[in-house]
Specification:
The complex is a heterotrimer of chains A (345), B (356) and C (263). Chain A has 345 residues and is of the alpha/beta class. Chain A is 31% helix and 21% strand. Chain A has a domain of 153 residues. In chain A, a hairpin with a 2-residue loop joins strand 10 and strand 11. Helix content of chain B is 26%, strand content 18%. In chain B, the strands form five sheets. Chain B has a six-stranded mixed sheet. Chain B has a four-stranded antiparallel sheet with strand order 1-2-4-3. Chain B has a two-stranded antiparallel ribbon with strand order 5-6. The chains are: A alpha/beta (345), B alpha+beta (356), C alpha/beta (263).
C-alpha cells in the first residue's frame, strides 16, 4: 500500500499520528553546533513535516530516543528504591536503515546479554515502531554497505522524502487508517547499494594476531591525536555504555534518584575502580578498546555481525578529525604486517 | 628634488608620505580585512604600474602599496574608483557623498575622501575559525557606513572571541564576539571536559558537582568564549542564538601613553554596538568643539572624561536587558614618564564647546 | 516485567573491624551465593558497588569492604540495625565441584582473601572435601592483615604460608607471594590439583607467570577479577574485556582465559 503526500498532507498525517504516537525524527537545532553558526541535528519529537530533517544525516543517533543520555531509573527514600515509571504512549521513530539495524545490535546487549533483560530498555523498545527513511546515500563518512546495515525489513512505514512531499509505503496495517483518503502511489523503498566509502574489516579470528595487534605501535598515534572527549561514542549508533549515579534532591540526603547516564570508554576513568589505577591509561589504549569492540569483540560474543553499522557519525563528530574508516584501514595494514612477520617465523 | 606637496592633504587622501621625497604609500581600505580575492589583482596592478612592485600588509589590514610617485596619484585615484565603489559603497553600503553623515559630494576620480575613521580590522571570525563566536567582517561591513567617511578618527578592532587575536584591547573601540551559553543538563554526561577546557583556556567558572554529576557555573566571571561548547562531546553546552559583544574601550599604542583598553560594555547586542557607534561622531565633535583634529578616540575620552563620554555615547541607545555598562573606567597607562600629566596649564587640553 | 537491577533493603546485623582499612558487615538476607560470586551493594545517595561475598551462613552474608571510594567511605558510618541495599548474587564463582578430591592451592594478595574466605571456611569445616589445602596469603604490611581469627584457625587445618611484602612479623614470612610459589609441592600432587589466585591485577599476573615457571598446568589455575561495574548484568559495559564481561562470565576465570584478556 503506497501513498504520495504533499507537505500539507504530510502535516495532516503527522498530526493524526501524533494523537496516538510520540513521533521522533531528526530535527534541526539552529546554531547549537559545536562551532558558532553551525547547527545540530538530533532526534526530538517533531511537530510538523518541515521539522523533519531528511536531506542530511543527524549528528546524534536515534538511540537517544530509546536510551536517553540521562534517565532516572529509581527514586529512593530511606528504605526503598522504587523503579521510575515510563510513559506508555507508543513511539514512532523516523530512522534510516543503519539506525534501525543499530537497534537490533543494541538489543543484543540490553535485552539479551547474560540472560538479563534491561527493564528500562525493554519498556521503551516495546513501544517503538520504525518509519524507515529511505536513505539518499548518506555522506562521505557512511559505509553501511560494508557493514551490511544498508537494508532492513523492520519498519511499519517506509518514507521517501523530497522537497515536494513524501512517498509512503505502509507495511503495517495499523498505520493504514492514518492515510485514508490520501493519493495512492506505487512506492517501494530502495536501499543504498554502494557507498562512496568502502571499509574492509580485517580478519581478527586468530588469537595470536589479535594479541599482537593490541600491542602494535599503530595505537600510539592516537595518544597525540585523540583528546579522549568521547564525542565518538555519544554519536555512535550502537554504543550502549552507561554509569549509574545516585543524586539527592535538595538538602534532604534521604530522598533522591538513581540515574543512568551515558558513559564513554574513550573518557579517562571509564575502567577506573576506586583507589586503583586505570587499566587503559592512554588515548591509544582506549581507541584500541573501542575499535576492537566495534570490529571484533562484539561479533565474537554475539555472532552474526559486527557492532559498527557504518553510520559514520563518530567520524562526523570527531573534533580532531579522526576517521573510523581510516583507522580500520590502519588496523588492516597492521594485521597484514603481523601476519607477514608471523609467517616468517 | 624640488617638491611642493601638501603632505597633510595627501594623508587625508590615504597616501602616506615616504622617506623618499615625492613618493607615497597608498592605503586601500579592506573593512574587516576580508574581500574577494579578485581584488588582489588590483593591488598587483597598482603596485606594478605606479608603485615599486611591492605590497605590504598594512598593520590595520589595509592593502599598502609603496613607492607611488606624487605625479601618479591622480592616475591611481582614478583606477581606485571601482574598488572604492565595490568595496565601500556596494559591499558595505557606505554613502560616499557624505562626510560625518553631512552631505559632501564625492569625486569618484579623487580616491578616498578622508583617512578619518581608520580601517576596521578583524580576525577571520566564525567564517572560518573554530573559536570564533561571530562573523567579524560582516559586523565590520555594518560599522563601516557609520564611521566612514569622517574626519574624526577612530580605530576599531573586531575579535571573534575573547582570545582577542585581533587585539581589541589595543584600540579605541575594540569589539569582541562573545557567546552566552545554555546548559542542557539532560544531555550532560558529567565528563568534566568543559570544566577542564574552562580551567585551561578561560576563567575557571565551571566546576563538576561530584554529588550530582552535573556542572555548576559562576556566570559572573564567564568571558563568553564558548570553549565549553567546543569541548562538550554531547552538545550539553550550546551557544544562544543571539550574538553578543564585549566592548573594550580606550586602548592604544603610541609614544606617550600606551595602554590596554578596559571593558566598557559586556553582553551588548549588535543593535547596541551599532547604536553606540552612531553616536561616535557626535561625541568626537563635541570634544573637539566641532573641529576635527588628527587625534584618536581614546584621547578624546581622556579629555571629556569617561562619564561625559558615556552620557553622549549612550544617548538614545536602547540597551538589551543583558547588557552591562562600566560605571567608571580607570585605565592604567605605561609610565614612560612619571607625573606625565602634571604640566603647565597652558599645555592642558580642552574638551567640549569653547565659548569665546 | 522483572527488574534485574532492583535493590532490596537488608538490615545490617553486625559490623566488624578487620584492619585499619577493612570492615566486615554481616547483613540479613536470604540470598544464597555460590563461593566467589559477588553482590551489588548500595546505599541511597552514595551509589552502588560490586562487593564479593566473604562469608555466608543461614540467613546472612558477609561483605568485607576496603575504605576506598565514596561508597565504601559512607558504608563505614553504618552500624548494626541500619539498612543497606543488595541485589545479586552475580557472576560465576569458584568451580568448587571441580576441586573435590584435589590438592587445592590458594594464593591471595591483600583483601583478595575475601572472595575465597567463604570457600576456605567451608573447606576448614569439611576437611575431606579436598585432599589438602595450601594457602599462601600475602599482605602489604601488618595494618593490612584481615581475618586474623581465621588465619590463625586455618593454620591448624591447612598448610599455610603467611607473608608481609617488606616487613617482619613473628611466625610470618617476608616477601611477595610469588616468592613462595616454588615452596608448594606441586610434584607431590600427581597432577591432581587446582590453583586459585586472587589479588590486585599485578599480583595475579606475576603469580600466574610464576606458576607457569614452576610447571603448573595452566588449565588447573583459576583467578578472580575485579573490575569497575555499574550494572553487574552485562549492560553498562564498564567491566567488558575483549568479548568477555567480568560480571557475567567472571569474576572467576580459568587462567587459560584470564591470561589472554587485555583490558
Amino acid at each position: 500500500m503506497g501513498f504520495s503526500l504533499t507537505p500539507a498532507q504530510a502535516d495532516a498525517v503527522l498530526s493524526a499520528l501524533k494523537q496516538d504516537y510520540r513521533v521522533y525524527a531528526p530535527k534541526r537545532f539552529p546554531k547549537q553546533g559545536r562551532y558558532s553558526d553551525t547547527d545540530v541535528i538530533r532526534y526530538a519529537e517533531v511537530e510538523r513535516f518541515s521539522d523533519i530533517v531528511w536531506d542530511v544525516k543527524s549528528d546524534y543517533p536515534a538511540k537517544e530516543v530509546i536510551t536517553p543520555i540521562q534517565q532516572a531509573i529509581f527514586y529512593f527514600t530511606e528504605d526503598e528504591y522504587r523503579a521510575s515509571k515510563a510513559k506508555t504512549k507508543p513511539i514512532l521513530i523516523l530512522a534510516r536503515p543503519c539506525d534501525i539495524n543499530a537497534q537490533h545490535i543494541q538489543a543484543k546487549i540490553y535485552a539479551g546479554n547474560g540472560g538479563y533483560e534491561d527493564l528500562y530498555y525493554k519498556r521503551v523498545r516495546d513501544l517503538v515502531k520504525f518509519a524507515m527513511m529511505e536513505c539518499n546515500g548518506g555522506d562521505d563518512t557512511c559505509f553501511c554497505v560494508s557493514m551490511g546495515s544498508n537494508r532492513t525489513d523492520d519498519y511499519s512505514l517506509a518514507l521517501k522524502f523530497s522537497a515536494d512531499g513524501v512517498q509512503v509505503q505502509v507495511t503495517d496495517d495499523a498505520f493504514a487508517p492514518y492515510f485514508a483518503g490520501m493519493a495512492e502511489a506505487d512506492y517501494a523503498p530502495a536501499f543504498v547499494e554502494e557507498n562512496q566509502l568502502k571499509v574492509t574489516v580485517p580478519d581478527l579470528d586468530d588469537k595470536a594476531v589479535r594479541l599482537a595487534l593490541k600491542s602494535h605501535p599503530m595505537w600510539k598515534e592516537f595518544n597525540s591525536r585523540c583528546v579522549s572527549c568521547g564525542a565518538c561514542t555519544v554519536a555512535c549508533s550502537t554504543c550502549t555504555c552507561f554509569t549509574t549515579r545516585d543524586v539527592i534532591y535538595g538538602d534532604n540526603p534521604e530522598v533522591g534518584e538513581r540515574r543512568r547516564v551515558s558513559a564513554s570508554c574513550q573518557i579517562a576513568g571509564f575502567d577506573q575502580m576506586a583507589g586503583q589505577k586505570e587499566f587503559r591509561s592512554t588515548a591509544g589504549d582506549r581507541m584500541r578498546y573501542k575499535v576492537l569492540h566495534k570490529f571484533h569483540d562484539y561479533k565474537a560474543r554475539f555472532g552474526e555481525r559486527h557492532m559498527c553499522v557504518g553510520c559514520g557519525r563518530c567520524t562526523h563528530r570527531c573534533p580532531e578529525l579522526i576517521s573510523i574508516s581510516a583507522t580500520v584501514s590502519k588496523v588492516s595494514a597492521a594485521v597484514e604486517e603481523i601476519k607477514a612477520s608471523m609467517a616468517q617465523q | 628634488m624640488n617638491h611642493d606637496i601638501n603632505v597633510k592633504k595627501m594623508r587625508l587622501n590615504c597616501f602616506r608620505q615616504s622617506k623618499v621625497p615625492g613618493e607615497f604609500m597608498l592605503q586601500m581600505r579592506v573593512p574587516g580585512g576580508m574581500v574577494d580575492a579578485k581584488y588582489l589583482s588590483y593591488v598587483e596592478h597598482i603596485a606594478n604600474t605606479w608603485g615599486d612592485g611591492n605590497f605590504h600588509f598594512g598593520t590595520r589590514q589595509t592593502f599598502d602599496i609603496t613607492g607611488i610617485k606624487y605625479e601618479n596619484i591622480p592616475a591611481v585615484n582614478a583606477y581606485l574608483e571601482q574598488y572604492i565603489k565595490e568595496v565601500d559603497a556596494e559591499l558595505c553600503g557606505v554613502n560616499m557623498d557624505t562626510v560625518a553623515h553631512e552631505p559632501q559630494p564625492w569625486d569618484p576620480k579623487a580616491g578616498y575622501p578622508t583617512i578619518g575613521a581608520r580601517n576596521i580590522t578583524a580576525c577571520v571570525g566564525n567564517y572560518h575559525c573554530i573559536c570564533g563566536n561571530c562573523n567579524t567582517f560582516e559586523l565590520a561591513r555594518k560599522i563601516e557606513p557609520i564611521i566612514f567617511p569622517s574626519h574624526y578618527h577612530i580605530k576599531i578592532n573586531i575579535a571573534g572571541c575573547p582570545n582577542d587575536c585581533n587585539k581589541a584591547h589595543l584600540c579605541d573601540f575594540g569589539i569582541i564576539g562573545v557567546a552566552r551559553m545554555t546548559y542542557h543538563p539532560e544531555r550532560c554526561i558529567g565528563c568534566g571536559a568543559c570544566v577542564r577546557a574552562c580551567e585551561h583556556g578561560a576563567t575557571r567558572v565551571l566546576s563538576l558537582n561530584e554529588a550530582t554529576g552535573k556542572i555548576e557555573k559562576d556566570p559572573c566571571c564567564c568571558v563568553g568564549c564558548g570553549e565549553c561548547v567546543k569541548a562538550c562531546p554531547a552538545s550539553a553546552w550550546t551557544r544562544q542564538e543571539t550574538k553578543f559583544y564585549r566592548v573594550i574601550l580606550g586602548g592604544r599604542t603610541g609614544r606617550q601613553t600606551p595602554r590596554t583598553g578596559k571593558m566598557f560594555l559586556n553582553w551588548a547586542t549588535e543593535d547596541v554596538i551599532l547604536g553606540v557607534l552612531k553616536n561616535w561622531q557626535k561625541f568626537s565633535a563635541w570634544v573637539m568643539d566641532y573641529k576635527p583634529e588628527y587625534l584618536h578616540g581614546g584621547h578624546l575620552i581622556d579629555r571629556a572624561g569617561y562619564k561625559k563620554f558615556k552620557e553622549i555615547i549612550l544617548d538614545g541607545v536602547k540597551l538589551n536587558p543583558e547588557c552591562l555598562v562600566a560605571e567608571d573606567i580607570f585605565w592604567h597607562e605605561t609610565e614612560y614618564r612619571s607625573n606625565f600629566n602634571v604640566k603647565p596649564m597652558a599645555l592642558h587640553h580642552s574638551a567640549g564647546p569653547q565659548n569665546g | 516485567m522483572m527488574n534485574p537491577v532492583q535493590p532490596q533493603a537488608c538490615t545490617i546485623l553486625s559490623v566488624k573491624k578487620e584492619s585499619v582499612h577493612e570492615w566486615t558487615f554481616r547483613v540479613a538476607t536470604d540470598a544464597k551465593p555460590a563461593h566467589g560470586q559477588f553482590m551489588q551493594l548500595s546505599i541511597p545517595m552514595i551509589g552502588e558497588a560490586p562487593i564479593s561475598v566473604s562469608a555466608q551462613g543461614e540467613g546472612w552474608l558477609e561483605f568485607t569492604i576496603r575504605s576506598v571510594g565514596k561508597v565504601t567511605n559512607v558504608i563505614f558510618e553504618k552500624q548494626a540495625g541500619d539498612t543497606l541495599f543488595l541485589r545479586g548474587p552475580y557472576g560465576k564463582g569458584w568451580p568448587v565441584e571441580q576441586f573435590k578430591g584435589k590438592h587445592l592451592v590458594v594464593i591471595t594478595g591483600g583483601t583478595g582473601l575475601a572472595p575465597v574466605r567463604s570457600m576456605l571456611n567451608m573447606l576448614a569445616d569439611d576437611p575431606d572435601y579436598v585432599k589438602s589445602v595450601h594457602l599462601i596469603s600475602g599482605f602489604k604490611n601488618e595494618e593490612g592483615i584481615v581475618f586474623h581469627n581465621e588465619l590463625e584457625a586455618w593454620k591448624e587445618k591447612f598448610s599455610t604460608i603467611y607473608a608481609l611484602d617488606n616487613d617482619a612479623k613473628e611466625g610470618w614470612r617476608t616477601g611477595l607471594v610469588t616468592t613462595f610459589v616454588k615452596e608448594i609441592p606441586f610434584d607431590s600432587f600427581g597432577g591432581n590439583y587446582a590453583v586459585v589466585v586472587v589479588g590486585p591485577p599485578p599480583m595475579m599476573k606475576f603469580t600466574g607467570l610464576e606458576l607457569m615457571k614452576n610447571g603448573v598446568d595452566a588449565e588447573k589455575v583459576w583467578m578472580s577479577f575485579e573490575r569497575k561495574m555499574s550494572c553487574a548484568v552485562g549492560k553498562c559495559g564498564h567491566c567488558r574485556i575483549d568479548e568477555v564481561y567480568v560480571c557475567l562470565d567472571g569474576p572467576v576465570f580459568p587462567y587459560t582465559v584470564a591470561r589472554d584478556l587485555v583490558d
